[in-house]
Amino acid sequence: MIRLAHADDLGLLQDIERAAGEAFRSLGMDQIADDEPLPVDELQTYVAAGRAWVYVDGLDFPVAYLLTDVVDGNAHVEQVSVHPEQAHQGFGRELLHAARIWARGHGMQRQTLSTFRDVPWNAPYYRRLGFEMLDAGSWGPELARLMEHEAELGLTRWPRVAMWRPVVPPR
Ligand SMILES: CC(C)(COP(=O)(O)OP(=O)(O)OC[C@H]1O[C@@H](n2cnc3c(N)ncnc32)[C@H](O)[C@@H]1OP(=O)(O)O)[C@@H](O)C(=O)NCCC(=O)NCCS
Predict the structure, then answer these.
(1) Which residues line ligand 1 at a C-beta cut-off of 6 Å?
(2) Spans of all domains in the chain
(3) Which of 27, 42, 49, 167 has the most C-beta neighbours closer than 10 Å?
(4) Mapping DSSP to helix (H, G, I), strand (E, B) and coil, where does residue 158 land?
(5) C-alpha atoms less than 13 angstroms from C-alpha of 139 in its C-beta half-sphere
(6) Architecture of the domain whose range is 2-166
(7) Each residue's pLDDT tens digit, 109-148
């Protein structure tokens, strides 16, 4: 089940992030695996804004989470992570759907994200969920700044792409 994240969840979200990041080692992307999760105070800002969702197990413990930012007026997925022991059950897809419903409720048009183009569980995964590549010429100013920041952090050692899907799915 999906619910909004609470302040009590935040340590677990960091654990999920570290565990989910391990998958990047298999592609030689140790820098990504070693990337520290967001600190608790930053996670708390998402909780306070009602833009952090968790997928919980039967004991109400988070096993996956998603954070959304508002970027150029669109719902931008800052992070989606599923604990590897709970992967391949559609939790990532359902969290992305929940954030899309939230965006619809807030009158937004697009759900956007940035991700690694060639990592099988990144851009190809999102493409299967209806996301399409967003050319640099179509980036709004905030998304452009965000992509620039990712380059400064060294993430573009591996090709990064921006993607989007409409908040209301096409019929
Ligand atoms: C990407 C992620 C959120 C997907 O969550 P999930 O709940 O496992 O995904 P779903 O169950 O909705 O979809 C599963 C599909 O994702 C893809 N996928 C997930 N993990 C994969 C992997 N290790 N290799 C290849 N494809 C993978 C497959 O298409 C898979 O389909 P399958 O289960 O039929 O094989 C999760 O794998 C994760 O947390 N990964 C590490 C962190 C990360 O990369 N986050 C995104 C940063 S932009």
Answers:
(1) 20, 23, 80-82, 87-93, 115, 120-122, 125
(2) 2-166
(3) 167
(4) coil
(5) 17
(6) 3-Layer(aba) Sandwich (3.40)
(7) 999 999 999 999 999 999 999 999 999 999 999 999 999 9
